[in-house]
Structures are given as structure tokens and as C-alpha cells.
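Protein modeling request. Please complete all fields; requests missing the sequence field cannot be processed.
Requester role: graduate student
Desired output: 3D structure, C-alpha cell encoding
Chains: 1
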Amino acid sequence: MTSGGAAELLRKPGQPQRATFLELFFDLVFIFALNRIAHRLVEDITSQRRIVLTEAGQTLVVLLAVWLVWTATAIITDLYDPDQPQIQLLVVATMFASLVMAVAVPAAFGRRGLLFAGAYVAIHIGRGLYLVPALRGHEAQRRAARVLFWFGVSAVPWIAGALFPESVTRGVLWTLAIALDYAALVFRLPTPGLGRPSVTELPVTAEHLSERYRQFFIIALGELIIVASAAFSGSDLRPGSAAAFAVSFATTVLFWRIYLYTAGGVFHAAIATARRPGRLALTLSVAHLLMVAGIVATSAGVELVIAHPFGHTDSAWAAVILGGPALFLLGRAVLEYAVFSRISPSRPIGALVLAAAAPGIVHTPPLSAATASLLVLTAVAVTDVARTRRHPREPLPPG
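Delivered output (399 residues):
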């Protein structure tokens, strides 16, 4: 393809920046993927295993892989024209492979390891093998080549790890692989013969990318609603389960409200005015990853609380019931700092209160732990309302 043909694939100045219907369609897979991850986490903390932390660490590796697939696709539709048939085909192919990954999630570290790793590697390598020759003669080819190189490097431990069924070796190799993937992005893809891209080589469409992050956040909340509703539907509908269901819904509403407060609604403007929008976009990705991880952990806690509202809260249960909201608040603090260069004290204080409450919570029923989390989130939301009244229109700091 000539450089003129390559240019056809790229977004053009003045082109509509809203997310397309295809991208919303693509996101449907990730509702299922997050649900499988949350279910896997429940199994991790309820199974009779000696080292729960190891099992939860495996679930974290799976979540990081799923998040990177979604993020990479969001960047593709941000850089390239999603109305072009070639890009649409690329997104649809990624959608199918992502669905395969999601199906393999529960047994990713077991009998379906090769299916999970193979689909993950196929997504990233396949995308690069198409884009590099398609962009021949255009400066964007260098960017695609860097991405292909690093995913090619990490493909080795991904596939090698899949060949060690249910062993510690797989965990070590996959941890190395996902660390390589994220480190490459953090250090801007330094590649032999190509170097690292300059800031100007990392264009970001502020409105589109910010909308995509918000949409994924809503997907995560949707998954939380599905888990809570399914757990309540499958319960005996007794008062304890009903109370737990109500607490889970209120928690979902507060997640939405706290996210939306100021920074969650204006970070597109921060990207648009930033001197280094690519670096800011990376920080926003980290913030949303932390928040989504917190919601997934909360989903696992919700399922446990609805099923056993007056049971025994062991340390692993307390970790997801309290740790999920705490992780969300930390991610929300990162988002706020990225946008306003400051952090509202209520976020870290709320996370610290949840952490401090954990030792005492293990002596109370799960419903009490979920209620404690709800009260902390309510306090944060009330603090936000008070701040809004004092500062109705907080200006963004200079880019």
C-alpha cells in the first residue's frame, strides 16, 4: 500500500470524534470478560487453597491482559479511521479473539492456558502484521513496527508459559510477559533501529479517547449490576439477601456519582490542552485500570455477601468487600491528580479508613462489611457535593 493508501487508514482533521456503533458493539464482549474475571476471583477466595494471594495474583494477570487488549483497540480506533472497512475488520477480528480469551478466563492457568495466551498473542501480533505493511511509506509505520516488536518479544513467555500446564512456571512466565507489555508502553516502546517516538508522534483525539474510557467504566458498572442481580435471583430472597442486594445497588450508584464528579466529566478537556497528551492518556489509562479492578473486586464481594449475608467474613472476603472500593478510590484519586494536579483528601482518607477497618470487619457478618464500605463511599460523595458548592466551576491547570 502506498503512503496515500496508508493515509486513508488514519483519522483526518475535522473528522467526527465520537465513538462509533462498532466500538460499542465491541465492548459487549468485555461485559462477559469482566464477569468471568469476577467469578474467577470468587473461586480464588472461596476454594480450599493454602495461598489465596497466589490465586488472586493469577486473576490480576488475566485482568491486566484483558485490559490491555481493550486499551490497544481503543487506541487503534483513536488513531485510525473506524469507518474504513479494513479497520472495522480488524476490530471485529479482535472482538472474536477477545471472546475466546474471555471463555478461557476461568481455566486460563489450567487446561485452557494455550487458548487464552494464543488468543492474546494472535490479537497483538495479527494487528501488527496487518498494520506494518499497510502503512508502508507513511511515518505511522514506525509506530506500528515498534508495537509489533514489543508484542513479539512478550509473545515468547506468553506461549512458553502456556506449555507448562498448571505449574508455577506458567505464573512466572506470564507475569514476565505482562510486565514486558506494560513496561514497553510506560517507556514509550524503545525499539532497536527505531528508537522511541517523540511526543509529536503520539497524537491523541481527546473527545474520542475520553469517551471510550467512560464507556468502559459504564461497562464495569454494568457487570457489577449483572453479578448482583444474578446472585440475588439465585438466592432464597430472604431479608438478609435483599438487604445485601440493596447495598450493592447503592454502592454501584455511588461509584458512578464519585467517578462523574468534576474530573470524570472534564478529563477530555485536560487531554485536549495538555502539552504531552500521550503521557496524560497513559496516566488516565492507569487510573481507569485501578477503578475497574476495584469494581471487579467489589463484584466478587457482592456475590459473596448476597449468598452469605450473615456468614463468617474471613480475611480474603474482607479483602474484596473493603479492598474493591478502596482500590476504586485510589484510581479515582489518580484520575483527579491527572486532571487537576491535586487530590481531594476524601479519596485517600476513604481508602485508609477501609484498610483500617479490615481487622475488625473479620469479626462481623459480610453484610456489615458491605455496609461499612457503603458508608465510606457515601461520606466521599457527600464531601464532593460540599466541594461543588464551594467551587462550582474549578478551572483546569495550565497544560
